[in-house]
Design brief:
This protein has nine helices and six strands; from the N terminus they run βαααααβαβαβαββα. The protein is α/β, with parallel strands linked by helices.
């Protein structure tokens, strides 16, 4: 069936998760980040994801904001930056103001102009996601923002992907699911979605039973993949 619905992961896909550490590193109050901000950003994101997987496995769900803070605390300690309360607060404040990648607004506008349903499906809590959508100025080109808080478990649990069909009344083969996480795109392939992995960092494909249908360096070609 033709694609009718384009669904996007949020963090790292539409919104630049490295932006908080990068911006703080440019501020004179935090010179210690000048040479370590990228390491901090990468470790923060990795631990944030790892904690979602672990919590899903042991059935210990928590709000994504708690997980985000836990990941940051681990990363700050790992990079020798623990104990700086001002830095921690600034990084967390900036996480609510993440910007979209440059190609995102035009891409979403093209999808909407082509008659597509568009939505976010994310581990993020509703408040976090609404903050990012408002900060990036893309609310007018999204039909909905779907959070795992509706089912109380993190991706890649199938109950999360079920939210798409429940919201839009579409079949799995009508959905183009887009994520910057190779494991997310791979698992969504196994679920039955057509998938695109936005592999901005040029990473290897995850060794999973399923692989993404498309591998892209950015989101520019999503309207073409959707057939608009």
């Amino acid at each position: 069936m033709p694609i009718t619905t384009c669904i996007f992961d949020a963090y790292g896909t539409l919104f630049d998760v490295s932006a908080a550490a990068r911006q703080a590193a440019q501020e004179p109050e935090f010179p210690q980040l000048k040479d370590s901000w990228m390491q901090l950003a990468n470790q923060w994101r990795l631990k944030q994801l790892q904690y979602t997987w672990l919590r899903a496995v042991v059935d210990a769900h928590a709000d994504f904001w708690d997980v985000t803070q836990n990941g940051l605390d681990w990363a700050l300690e790992a990079t020798g930056l623990a104990g700086n309360d001002a830095l921690r607060k600034r990084l967390l404040d900036l996480y609510w103001e993440l910007q979209a990648y440059p190609e995102v607004p035009a891409m979403l506008k093209a999808l909407k102009a082509g008659g597509m349903n568009t939505a976010i499906l994310s581990n993020g809590s509703p408040d976090m996601l609404n903050g990012a959508v408002q900060s990036a100025g893309v609310g007018d080109v999204l039909d909905d923002v779907l959070s795992v808080e509706n089912v109380g478990v993190f991706k890649p649990d199938a109950r999360v992907y079920d939210l798409v069909g429940e919201r839009f009344g579409c079949s799995k083969d009508e959905v183009l699911f887009v994520s910057s996480n190779g494991w997310d795109a791979g698992c969504a392939t196994g679920y039955g979605f057509t998938t695109a992995w936005v592999n901005r960092a040029g990473e290897p494909v995850d060794r999973l039973p399923w692989t993404p249908a498309h591998i892209l360096s950015d989101l520019t070609s999503i309207p073409d993949l959707a057939g608009v």
